[in-house]
Design goal:
alpha/beta; single chain
Length: about 500
Amino acid sequence: MRDLISDIGAQPKTLRPHQAKAIDLLRQSLGKGHKRVVLQAPTGFGKTLVAAKIIQGALDKGNHVIVTAPAISLIDQSLEAFASEGIYDIGVMQASHPRTNPLARVQVASVQTLARRDIPDATLVIVDECHQRFKTIEKLMKDRPDVCFIGLSATPWGKGMGLIWDDLVVPTTINELIEQEYLSNFTVFAPDVPDLASVKTQHGDYHEGQAAAVMHGKALMASVVETWLARGENRPTLLFGVNCAHAEALSEAFKGAGVSSAYVDAYTDSVERALIERQFRAGEVKVVCSVRTLTTGVDWPVSCIIDAAPTKSEILHVQKIGRGLRNGEGTQDLLVLDHAGNSLRLGLVTDIQNQTLDTCKPGEKATSGPKAKKLPRPCTSCETLFTGRFCPSCGRERKPVPGVNTVEGELVEIGEVRKTPTKEEKQKFWSMALAMDDERRKGGGMAKALYKGKFGVWPKNLSERRLEPDQAFLNYEKSRRIAYAKSKQKRGTA
């Protein structure tokens, strides 16, 4: 079976080390006689490039290939990626697509279309997002035992996948890609920990309606907006809500606070979605709210994730955070505002991993699944979530609990994450605070209070020059006014 994939040395584009390793591991697995092999490829891995190399290798051997996409919206994206690698002998199986060509040696098909049409012969089938367990694909695997199937997924941890697939290859992890600077460092804050004790479990996850009722509470809704204004730094942001009504309400809440926002769901047509993406890339829309529509196949310049949708699924948790881990211009680090408490329950995404496929049968408890090495806790100083002894953001040491014996061992941390504010960053904030203080004639008191609230210390050894406030500063200052108004209401003095 390894003859399906030719050597990669003659290919025009240079592969990154983890991508070349992935192809080597796949060839080794095929060489052992496995016909259904899953490649675990984290967000930002470059799995489309790897798929293109696999396809070209199969074509060089005279084979025919089918590539399945989990959603119609991903087909054109795949066509562009394959064309950039010089693969043009492609037909599309999806409605009346202009690239329909049943004679092409590569057929790119949506899973929905495969379920309704005769499936052409092929020697190799590449299944994108294979953790979604499509019945059409699994039936095809049973009907064609001699065909080779390669599954691609960042999270191949679905229940019973090991009963369908033969092998799992793991060339790298999220943590390794962060260390190698292929993915962004990230910082997680858990501003709210919703009380989900009364929420029932349905189909292995929180009951959607009951979870939405909790997260739709007035205090939590307001906290989402206020926290972003205070901590979000005006970053391009994706927000995940529990259901459509919740996500849309949050979008309206941001608009009510003067923040440009948009809402996307499964019914948003391709033209409107493309417009929202252009506005997002241009900075005209700062926060895009959805449910699960934007959890896969999205390559937008995201540097903040707001998670307002509680889940018990490690797969969904990792997929959501993964939307912001891509490293690009202006997105070198990711801020996660976890209002759902998912990181506290499931762990940080760098600690969730698994080396084997689950082999439990229907009705049985999962035999294996991604396990967090250690659940994070917030830093008592800066509130960053971490799982080690020293906070990676501010450096504060987490003291052992009195009366509990401890032993020396490896400390589990999250790379370097977000750095302690530099003197330049503090100066910029102070200069903006002074400018606003002058405009409002506060005599310097307001500027000092804003600075102390932001950095936890009074301004010292900084220039008195003024600088016009930017949008991130204005958002922060607005959040402080909202917080002050709330505190007055609680004291009954409003």
